[in-house]
């Protein structure tokens, strides 16, 4: 099993407790005006994926899709349950985050590689290819903050894809950069997908899910409505949307 989630739940706590400071906290507690709210964004989700699976996650806004991806990529620890993930993950979420604006493009590439667990030797081997794919040869020694946001995404995409992921996580990012780069990035993504990696894709396009995925996870308000075959679940989801 490449990905296995067992009764995973994630709780967010919201309210005024973060910014108010200890004094205000005590005053509000004494006055009974201290409000915090618990919120289960993901509530008891279990499913597993094997090598080569391409799983789509569907559900309305706020269903918990992005939160679940954060658990799978290890950015968040579930409040309850377990997530077992075996393999290198390339997560194309919030693409341009996690870079250091003052370091150069080259330094950032090595830094991101190190964060993904790759050795310097491996990155030396891959570096030229990454920069060439991102079409940033002329920007290698510029500070990262001087890149346009499209260029930043291109670099993030190139690093994530060219370092041989075993698990690919895509959050509505099938459109990176401008027209020409988008075509190239989609082709690259399809190449990776077809090379036998396990892919998890969040998309609001049911057409895309039907075309690409062999399994589907349907979430609604954090709860798992169903996990199973694409056609059956997409049909049910469409019926559900029609009745809404
Ligand atoms: N940091 C946070 N603190 C509190 N609540 C949060 C936080 N992040 C998300 N939420 C809430 O958790 C729920 C699930 O959010 P999430 O972003 O996972 O949904 P989603 O299915 O990805 O939605 P969308 O389709 O709109 O992108 C939402 O109700 C959201 O308001």
TrEMBL record:
Keywords for this protein: ATP-binding, Nucleotide-binding, Transport
Superkingdom of this protein's organism: Bacteria
GO MF term list: ABC-type transporter activity; ATP binding; ATP hydrolysis activity
Family annotation (PANTHER family): TEICHOIC ACIDS EXPORT ATP-BINDING PROTEIN TAGH
Family the UniProt entry places it in: Belongs to the ABC transporter superfamily.
GO cellular component: membrane
Domain ABC transporter: 22-241
Signal peptide residue numbers: none
Name of this protein: ABC-2 type transport system ATP-binding protein
